[in-house]
Write a structure and sequence with these properties.
GO terms for molecular function: hydro-lyase activity; magnesium ion binding. The chain has 447 residues and is of the alpha/beta class. 38% of the residues lie in helices and 19% in strands. It contains 15 helices and 16 strands. The strands form three sheets. Strands 4, 6, 7, 8, 9, 10, 11, 12, 14 and 15 form a ten-stranded mixed sheet that branches. The protein has a four-stranded antiparallel sheet with strand order 3-2-1-5. The protein has a two-stranded antiparallel sheet with strand order 13-16. Strand 10 (348-349), helix 12 and strand 11 (375-376) form a beta-alpha-beta unit.
């Protein structure tokens, strides 16, 4: 019976197949030799290919590219006094803060990253401690490096040991670790672009070098009446911005409604208006607020609900309004962003590569969002993040600050960088992220 089935299989197929009884390839007529002629042809091909490779190596036409090693990782905490207190829905600040990360390699290439300024000293203290974990990895291997660093946050019975590479960071330091990963990862993408002699936006396959930008203003400020904007928003429109964002949530809704009305009057009917609550409301308060704000044609409503219920509450809120909801800037890894997409009902994702887990993780989030019809909009650091959004089909508008009064580093820290002109970020063709550092500014503002 087995012989008959095998013979039928051979008659029905010109090519060898897995046999339903024997689970082996049928014989080709040579006893004990499975698919003999085909196997011999493959063996001859492998032998010829091996000889050709050896000959190329001897003739010098083929060579092995050596791995580039990371030799040093440094962080510089920078702080600049703004001369006034700026406030949002649940915070205020009077200094601009930023962490500069510098990664050196054994091939003389240096990469830079600039990070959101939370926990600056902790980040700068941890960064050099992570460098020994990467001693055996190629600086161009961004996925392997990202995973090696992320593994510091996890353990299991099978992997836990007292080896330095497997040491586990305590959970109260996860945000610090993720920011360190961001700094190293972004700096390595800068190096990857420099090694390839390409700007990162081209390295990622983008066909555009200009991204639309909006300006964030309208803060609650200690140096003026917060019920009016005193021409600030109108000046942004005059500069060429077609989208403006203001802060809400620090005042009762009735008073913030007056601010929204004033903002719409100042920018006119054609300029888009974004409202940012910075997690100021319960979902019931947010539902009441957005119903009242909708009359002023809100482009999107950003981070409306409290941090502890920022996913499911967003989902409930999205069912009550046609105004698009945005969130993600406060997340530190892609899994949290996944939940915002799946359960939060957001239409704009603002995951921050310089605050979360770097460009590598940002690209994963962007791909997931693209499959779900969610737009990626940057949060801060447009000279880095616009390289990423430019390369994504769902890459959207970038956040910027128009004046050095709010962001002195934009004008002072960089020798070269992307340009903000007429409401758009213009990326250059310089390799990497296209910016160099003014080290005099680093010395002046180092905290």
């Amino acid at each position: 019976m087995r012989h008959d089935l095998r013979r039928c299989a051979l008659h029905q197929h010109d090519q060898p197949i897995l046999h339903p009884v024997s689970r082996r390839r049928p014989m080709d007529g040579h006893r004990g030799n499975i698919a003999g002629p085909a196997r011999r042809r493959r063996r001859r091909y492998r032998n010829h290919r091996h000889r050709d490779t050896e000959q190329q190596g001897r003739s010098g036409t083929a060579r092995r590219v050596s791995a580039m090693k990371i030799t040093r990782i440094q962080g510089y905490p920078l702080s600049a006094d703004l001369g006034a207190r700026y406030g949002g829905g649940n915070f205020e600040f009077s200094t601009a803060r930023l962490v500069l990360v510098k990664v050196d390699t054994d091939e003389g290439l240096t990469g830079y990253a600039t990070l959101h300024g939370h926990a600056m000293k902790e980040v700068c203290a941890l960064l050099p401690q992570l460098q020994p974990l990467l001693h055996d990895l190629d600086a161009m291997s961004h996925e392997a490096i990202w995973q090696r660093l992320f593994d510091v946050s996890t353990s299991s019975p099978a992997t836990t040991s007292f080896e330095p590479r497997r040491s586990v960071i305590s959970n109260d330091k996860f945000a610090v670790l993720m920011r360190c990963i961001a700094g190293i990862d972004i700096a390595l993408w800068d190096i990857k672009g420099k090694a390839s002699n390409l700007p990162v936006w081209k390295l990622l396959g983008a066909s555009r070098d200009t991204m639309p930008a909006y300006v964030t203003g309208g803060y609650y400020r200690s140096d003026r009446d917060n019920m009016r904007f005193h021409g600030e928003l109108a000046s942004y429109v005059d500069e060429g911005f077609s989208t403006v964002k203001i802060k809400i949530g620090a005042l009762p809704v009735d008073e913030d409604l007056k601010r929204v009305r004033e903002a719409r009057a100042e920018i006119g009917p054609d300029c888009k208006l974004i409202l940012d609550a910075n997690n100021a409301y319960t979902w019931q308060q947010a539902a009441d607020a957005i119903r009242r704000f909708e009359a002023y044609d809100i482009h999107w409503f950003e981070e409306p609900v409290h941090w502890y219920d920022s996913v499911r509450a967003l989902g409930k809120l999205s069912a009550l309004t046609k105004t698009p909801l945005s969130s993600g800037e406060s997340e530190i890894h892609g899994w949290a962003c996944r939940d915002l997409v799946d359960m939060g009902g957001i239409r704009i994702m603002q995951y921050d590569a310089t605050r979360g887990a770097g460009a590598t993780d940002w690209l994963r989030v962007a791909a997931y969002c693209n499959l779900h019809g969610v737009t990626m909009s940057t949060h801060h650091q447009p000279h880095i993040q616009c390289h990423l959004t430019a390369a994504m089909p769902n890459g959207g508008i970038a956040e910027t600050f128009s004046t050095s009064a709010r962001d002195p580093f934009w004008d002072e820290l960089y020798v070269e960088r992307a340009q903000l002109k007429a409401g758009a970020i213009h990326l250059s063709d310089r390799p990497g992220f296209g910016f160099d550092i003014d080290w005099g500014t680093v010395t002046r503002y180092q905290a």
